[in-house]
Design a protein that fits this description.
By secondary structure, the chain is α+β, with helices and mostly antiparallel strands. The protein has 22 helices and eight strands. It is globular.
Length: about 450
């Protein structure tokens, strides 16, 4: 009922044509091909262009021509010129075989499931957009991958607005979803099962680090609770899932097909859209002549007219989608040129507002066109949202991409003394002294967890 109410409200604001254009923007390459195939099945006006029509093949012998009622040749030619086939925004060329070792894998079932639940919730229009920002930043394990401050900086929404929507999402299935750390994940799962034991909640909130180290005696000394009670809490924790999102991933994860290729050239970098499997569309000549025939009337005329309009809008929306994707990709390359020249260490902080302002489009359009899209670069294939990292401040006031900081942390840990691994505090000091990077210990811990790197205590080799 809620979903129906929300859908009707949305449809009252957006025309079907605009809804279709928005939908095409956010489709992945595979989803777009499926959408085109479905449209071809439903609309007889649309067809796949084999060859552009020639003057010699213009006539159809089965259609009688009359001086008064036949559509003008110029009218038909105008339609065919405007709506067949879909235009190219960069010259296609052979790109060779894909290096499948560089192709990343992706699962999105979890986020689809969360979006479905958001559609059933009582979010208003703005909250629904905020929910999309939060869901997009939930990783495959079910955790919020970035802080609300980071998301606020990119999205433009306040932390208070984000917090309110996040609390609702944390009530979604699976329990524990949207947690910012393991402690919050356990508390969310405990609350979801109706747990209200104040001792359990107190130990999780105030003794979690000691609990992780199995320091039962230390917790008993600090809190005054019996060791038996603390063991009960520990046993109950073991029944919870530390990665609630993993059960919603695909069993068979597909390889990603790039939507955009960025190729090094003599003049810099060229951008090409991957349109290899996207059919070129045109409007069927026979039905166009019927639509322009002044003698045709009644339900047939009405039906053909509606299908012509539908086909016209679909081709327009498809062209606009490709054009927007190309322009956004070009703009990303311009803003992140040092990355394409030198690699990940030179990735800069970038937000949607920068691209939107440059192209004169809305931020939500940039967000949609970069969702589920992948870019092939000289350094591998990356999701297009990868090029919009938040920043960490340096001593001199410059901002450094969080992806760069993660890479530096990973390098420090790879090269550390395995018998005396670096603590998070030591990593903080090294980054500040060597790179001038100002970062908090808990941020290092968060990035380390995102990189699936254990704590120093668990990395130590005796």
């Amino acid at each position: 009922m809620l979903e129906l109410k929300q859908t009707q409200k949305l449809q009252a604001i957006l025309t079907p044509q605009l809804q279709q254009a928005i939908k095409l923007l956010q489709l992945s390459q595979i989803e777009l091909i499926e959408a085109i195939e479905q449209e071809l099945k439903e609309n007889p006006i649309l067809e796949v262009a084999e060859e552009r029509p020639s003057e010699e093949g213009f006539k159809d012998e089965n259609i009688e021509e009359t001086k008064d009622t036949s559509p003008d040749k110029e009218d038909i030619e105008e339609f065919l010129e405007r709506f067949s086939p879909t235009e190219d925004f960069a010259e296609r060329e052979e790109k060779g075989y894909l290096n499948y070792e560089n192709i990343v894998k992706k699962t999105q079932d979890l986020r689809d499931y969360l979006r479905w639940q958001a559609g059933l919730s009582d979010f208003d229009g703005e909250q629904r957009l905020i929910a999309e920002w939060i869901i997009e930043n939930i990783n495959d394990n079910g955790y919020l991958a970035y802080s609300l401050a980071d998301i606020s900086q990119v999205s433009g929404y306040t932390e208070q607005q984000l917090e309110g929507v996040l609390k609702k999402i944390q009530g979604f299935d699976p329990p524990g979803i949207g947690a910012r750390d393991l402690r919050e994940c356990i508390l969310l799962q405990y609350e979801a099962k109706g747990g209200k034991d104040p001792v359990f909640i107190d130990i999780i909130n105030n003794c979690f680090d000691m609990l992780q180290n199995n320091n039962i005696k230390g917790i008993a000394k600090k809190t005054g609770y019996s060791q038996e009670k603390i063991k009960e809490v520990l046993d109950e924790i073991k029944t919870f899932d530390p990665k609630p999102g993993r059960n919603y991933s695909d069993e068979q994860v597909p390889y990603i097909v790039p939507d955009v290729y960025v190729v090094r050239s003599d003049d810099g970098f060229d951008v090409f859209l991957n349109e290899e499997d996207i059919p070129e569309l045109q409007m069927n000549r026979y039905y166009m002549e019927l639509n322009l025939n002044r003698e045709l009337n009644g339900e047939t005329k009405k039906y053909i007219k509606s299908k012509v309009k539908q086909a016209e809008w679909f081709i327009k929306s498809l062209k606009q989608r490709q054009r927007t994707l190309y322009l956004v990709a070009k703009s990303i390359v311009t803003h992140q040129i040092t990355f394409f020249e030198k690699g990940i260490r030179f990735l800069k902080p970038l937000n949607l507002r920068d691209i939107a302002g440059e192209l004169g489009i809305h931020e939500s359009t940039v967000s949609r066109i970069t969702t589920n899209k992948y870019m092939s670069t000289p350094y591998g294939i990356f999701e297009m949202k990868f090029f919009f990292p938040t920043g960490i401040k340096k001593d001199e006031g410059d901002m450094l991409s969080t992806n760069v900081v993660k890479d530096l942390i990973k390098e420090l840990i790879v090269n550390e003394d395995k018998h005396k691994p670096l603590t998070d505090d030591e990593i903080v000091s090294i980054l500040k002294e060597r790179k001038g990077i100002i970062i908090k210990r808990r941020t290092v811990a968060k990035y380390r967890d995102m990189l699936n790197i254990l704590s120093s205590r668990n990395r130590k080799i005796d």
